[in-house]
Amino acid sequence: MSLKLRKLSYALGAEVCDIDVTRVSEASFGEIYRAFLEHGILLFRNQNISREQHIEFSRRFGELDRHDALPRDRHPDYPEILLVTNEPKPDGSPSDSRYTGRQWHSDMSFTTVPSLGSLLRGITIPEVGGDTVFANMYLAYETLSDGMKALIADLHGIHLSGTRKINNEESGSTRAEEQKKLNPPIAQPLVRVHPETGRKALYLGDKVKRFDGLTEEESRPLIQYLNEHATRFEFIYRHQWRANDIVAWDIRCTMHLALGDFDETQRRHMERTTVLGTPSGYVVASA
Ligand code: SIN
What is the pTM of this model? Predict the structure, then answer.
């Protein structure tokens, strides 16, 4: 069978059409994985599947993270599933993950085993908005001048865990403190080589406040420039969710942002599996 693909944007992404992810042969999965490497993001629409089936399909991409770095956000019965939801907890208090992803980031970059990819399933979607935006970090790197490429070649960005919005909220401070204890600051190369395609990609985002060996003041202008460059409209795809969408992204060449562009009195409930990547980065003494 040959895969029916429809490009999602100029920069990245393709929809895999007419497919049921619970019935994919070995050969078809080989094609899916090649498309994943080529397009960076794959969209599978109309996948009304169970949690077990979500986990099973995700395992075909590799071993799954049990989310020990984000214990509050994992599903109590399915550690392979990370909740991204604004549904209140059973005791009525706000969900810990209601602001997950509201900064440009690459999943688990604040650990020494950053992910290979994630598969996010849209379950309850607001009437309008709640979109996710993805940036192609190969293009971000490849379109820099040779001078800039030489300047940044050996830099390491220090990635911090936590979300800005929760860090700034009284109710989120316990979670933020826990997160910091569990996940010390990690320096990751600013330019990474994709282990399967061999292409170079920029590795940055809003979790980075400085480069190892430089102060925040010294780092800020370069971080700002590179993040703005990486998120130019030409390099992004904005996904408008429908219930039962699954979006799989290759974390080694993309970054993404969950937009808060929706009425927060409406429910947005997403469930994510995260595929383990290869070890990268080192712990630094201070952020
Ligand atoms: C994430 O960062 O994994 C969540 C993205 C989203 O909720 O749109």
Answer: 0.94
